[in-house]
Amino acid sequence: MTALIASIAILAQPQAPVDQPTAVIGQPAPTFSVPAADGKTYDLKSYEGKFVVLEWTNKGCHFVQDHYGSGHMQSLQRLAKEKGVVWLTICTSGVGKQGYLTAGEHVEHVKAVKAEPVAVLLDTDGKVGRAYGAKTTPQMVLIDPKGTLLYNGAIDDAPKGDPSKAKNYLKLAMEEALAGKPVTTTTTRPYGCSVKY
Fold first, then answer.
1. Which residue, 84, 83, 87, 191, is CA-closest to 141?
2. Directed axis angle between helix 72-82 and helix 169-178, to 10°?
């Protein structure tokens, strides 16, 4: 009986949600060390002193296809590169889930769509996605040179519209941050296909 009461007491204690994000705007961005499609391992800490963009992707998601098909995502990647911003694309699709690709398939896909990220990170266990609360593809994050989270959310305000005519939250956040200004819009509700944990 005593053991049963003890078990009930343990169950009654509040439990922290397993998937609770640790990424908070204005706080240090969650660090990670993740293998990439190019065979290397990428560590967020190695980019201290630089702005970093994280882009969640899924080749099978039509929202992602729209941004790449229009060339819009690639133009943002080129802009980031010109400004010295590190762009890391992250695939959080688990093995056997929509969007999952092998390392070689990711390399070929990047070439096919002429994307220009520094690397495609293979977050198949979902640790990075969960830490940042990644819900959709695309979902965008901006981190400053001190490692502080500046923006987390949608790429723009046009989930069903033309990306070229949309208000691009990521681009605006980058422009403000690079100019030494506070980011006006720090969070937005992301749209797209659900991340396939």
1. 87
2. 10
Provide the residue type at 84 as one letter: G
Query: What would the DSSP string read from start to end of the chain?
Result: -HHHHHHHHHHHS----TT-----TTSBPPP-EEEBTTS-EEEGGGGTTS-EEEEE--TT-HHHHHHHHTTHHHHHHHHHHHTT-EEEEEE-PPTTSTT---HHHHHHHHHHHT---SEEEE-TT-HHHHHTT--EESEEEEE-TTSBEEEEE-SBS-TTS-GGGS-BHHHHHHHHHHTTPPPS--B----SEEP--
| 168 neighbors 70 (Cβ within 8 angstroms) | no
Average pLDDT over the chain reads: 90
> What are the tens digits of pLDDT across the range 64-109?
999 999 999 999 999 999 999 999 999 999 999 999 999 999 999 9
Total residue count of the chain as it appears in this document: 197
Q: In Å, what is the CA distance from 19 to each residue of 53, 127, 192?
A: 22, 9, 20
Q: Which residues pair with 151 in a beta bridge?
A: 142
Question: What does the pLDDT look like over 155-165, one tens digit per residue?
Answer: 999 988 777 78
